[in-house]
Amino acid sequence: MLAKFSVKNYRGFPKEIIWDLSKPSNYEFHPEAIKNGIIKNGIIYGPNGSGKTNLGLALFDVVNHLSQKWKKPDYYGNYVYAGHPLEPVEFKYVFRFDTKTVDYTYSKDSYGDIKTESLTVNRKIVFQRDLVQVKLDKKAFPSINEKAIENLNVHANNFSFVNFLLTSMPLPKDHYLLQLQQFANSMLWFRCLNVTEFIGLETNGTIIDEYIIRNNLVKDFETFLKETSGQVFVFDTPNPNDKRLYCLFEGNRVSFHSIASTGTESLELLYYWLSKMNQTQFVFIDEFDAFYHYKLSFAVCKRLFNLDSQVFLSSHNTSLMTNDLLRPDCNFILNNNKIKPLCDCTDKELRWGHSIEKLYRGGTFNI
């Protein structure tokens, strides 16, 4: 699980911004939102331009060099904070895998080339590298000889040393490097605004209609739309070569996308990713309910938060800021280069009976 993340000099974050998921409060309600002492589910709120999208994109930087899954093609555009274009972007991740706490830190330049990198496991340094040399704990990898380390020092630039160890060392299944790689491979970021985009989990783009037809999910998708949004669509049985969904209206066949609203098409995207989320460990959906009715947003949250994965959403919909859905330590405010849970943004004791949305709109929470 992801326990903590920070980034500095990335896009709109000139100073280090720290997102700590390892310190939940002691609320007795919604214990399912906490797993192994780490916040499992949450929603991030903040004004326009506060950095909600940038935080999600920064967090998924690790996918770009530890995973072969899909990357955002324009990810490195506007990568470094414009005020410090020559300074590197610094990333710090803290993962918890079973009994192991893995600290993975690295920096990149504006082209995405790695400049420094280090890995610590349970506070013991495994390796450190910079542009000049690599320092490796020989006890951790005794099969790497002095000659290999000398060669690494000659070429210690523009590559991930974690990837080198993964591809050159035989490792047991529960090794922390394999767990780190598996986590990166099972991360998913997506959004559906004017353009549908995603990072991670898949290796290629997919036509969702075709995916639903090919996997015999037409009736299941029909049920999903009714259960989540109350909309009743009657889909025609697809022909063998159909790549698009069609609906029936008194015997007439009409293209689904010619009659579906923007919100309904967004639900189709969500349905597709939900069918894949048994493969995920960490999910971030940016502006997940931009086209949803508020009741639909609540229903979708309930479904997403029932997954085993860590799931975090960004939203402007403060009707979701309720103790009926999450706890105050699982609702985050992002603003002014900081992100904090509601319970850390006020001296007021927040209880089950409080309307935290009213408190938020009334200016109770300051960051």
Please outline what is shown here.
The chain has 367 residues and is an alpha+beta fold.
Strand content: 15-25%
Number of strands: 18
CATH superfamily of the largest domain: P-loop containing nucleotide triphosphate hydrolases
User: What is the rounded Rg?
Assistant: 22 Å
Order of helices and strands: EEEEEHHEEEEEHHHEEHHEEHHEHEEEH
CATH uppermost class of the largest domain: Alpha Beta
Low-confidence stretches: none
Briefly note the CATH topology name of the largest domain.
Rossmann fold
Sheet having the most strands? 7 strands, antiparallel
Specify the structural class: alpha+beta
Q: Could you describe the 3D structure shown?
A:
With 367 residues, this protein is an alpha+beta fold. It has two domains: 287 residues, Rossmann fold, CATH 3.40.50.300; 55 residues, no CATH class. Helix content is 25%, strand content 25%. It contains eleven helices and 18 strands. The strands form four sheets. The protein has a seven-stranded antiparallel beta sheet. Strands 12-11-15-16-5-17-18 form a seven-stranded mixed beta sheet. Helix 7 crosses helix 9. The radius of gyration is 22 Å and the shape is globular. The relative contact order is 0.15. The mean pLDDT is 91.
